């Protein structure tokens, strides 16, 4: 399955890095993960590979860098076509990209609004977050996964973000399972996949990381 050297510039708690590692896992591609110190000093390789944003993840394929997780997952799907992550028809692919874009633009920000809250989390922030999950439930419909019967592109994009949900629930005082049972069932189904389970970190560790971030940003 190898097509040359694959390196991922990584940060363990980043949902965006998790996407890349899950996609590679789905394809059975071996890679070297290099953990970046985002607080103590980014590596020269990261600064050189992503001079525009200076962020992880970066995929280095035979030394050539690629940035932005959704772009990287699309690239992985093209270079290692089996099993496919995107649907076979143009309409299905366009729909998958629409929902991936929705998750990038809406879901991550909604999570941030909750954990960055000072004092009691605003009801509006919780309402917005739950509304986004309900919209995703609508896209899921009665299917096992967003793409249908098999784990695919939108699932890869969405599932890493759920590693932060435990922290969000703690700060927000609610349970995703109570508000969005269908989405919660989808989360559990994804977590049964080896490619997902071995990459998604312990929710308690993510919660501890979020507490540290709050202190660093003077929120506590």
Please characterize this protein's 3D structure.
With 220 residues, this protein is α+β, with helices and mostly antiparallel strands. The chain folds into 2 domains: 6-79, 3-Layer(aba) Sandwich (Glutaredoxin), CATH 3.40.30.10; 90-216, Up-down Bundle (Glutathione S-transferase Yfyf (Class Pi), Chain A, domain 2), CATH 1.20.1050. 55% of the residues lie in helices and 8% in strands. It has a 4-stranded mixed sheet with strand order 2-1-3-4, with helices on one face. Helix 1 runs parallel beside helix 3, helix 4 (90-115) runs antiparallel to helix 5 (123-140) and helix 7 (165-172) packs across helix 11 (203-216). The termini are far apart. 33% of the residues are buried. The mean pLDDT is 95.
Largest sheet: 4 strands, mixed
What structural class should be given to the helix and strand makeup? alpha+beta
Overall domain count: 2
The SSE string, one letter per element, is: EHEHEEHHHHHHHHH
Strand adjacency order, main sheet: 2-1-3-4
- Please state the second-level CATH architecture of the largest domain: Up-down Bundle
């Amino acid at each position: 399955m190898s097509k040359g050297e694959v390196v991922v510039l990584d940060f363990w708690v980043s949902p965006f890095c998790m996407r890349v590692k899950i996609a590679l896992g789905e394809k059975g591609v071996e890679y070297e993960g290099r953990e970046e110190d985002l607080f103590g000093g980014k590596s020269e390789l990261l600064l050189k590979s992503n001079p525009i944003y200076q962020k992880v993840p970066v995929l280095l394929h035979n030394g050539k860098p690629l940035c932005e997780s959704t772009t990287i997952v699309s690239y992985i799907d093209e270079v290692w076509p089996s099993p496919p992550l995107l649907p076979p028809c143009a309409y299905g692919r366009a729909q998958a990209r629409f929902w991936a874009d929705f998750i990038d633009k809406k879901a991550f920000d909604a999570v941030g609004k909750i954990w960055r809250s000072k004092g009691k989390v605003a009801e509006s922030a919780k309402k917005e977050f739950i509304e986004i999950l309900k919209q995703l439930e609508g896209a899921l419909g009665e299917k096992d996964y967003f793409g249908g019967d098999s784990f695919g592109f939108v699932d890869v994009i969405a599932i890493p973000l759920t590693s932060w949900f435990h922290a969000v629930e703690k700060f927000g005082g609610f349970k995703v399972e109570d508000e969005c049972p269908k989405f919660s069932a989808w989360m559990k189904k994804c977590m049964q996949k080896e490619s997902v389970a071995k990459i998604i970190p312990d929710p308690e560790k993510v919660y501890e990381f979020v507490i540290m971030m709050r202190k660093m940003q003077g929120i506590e």
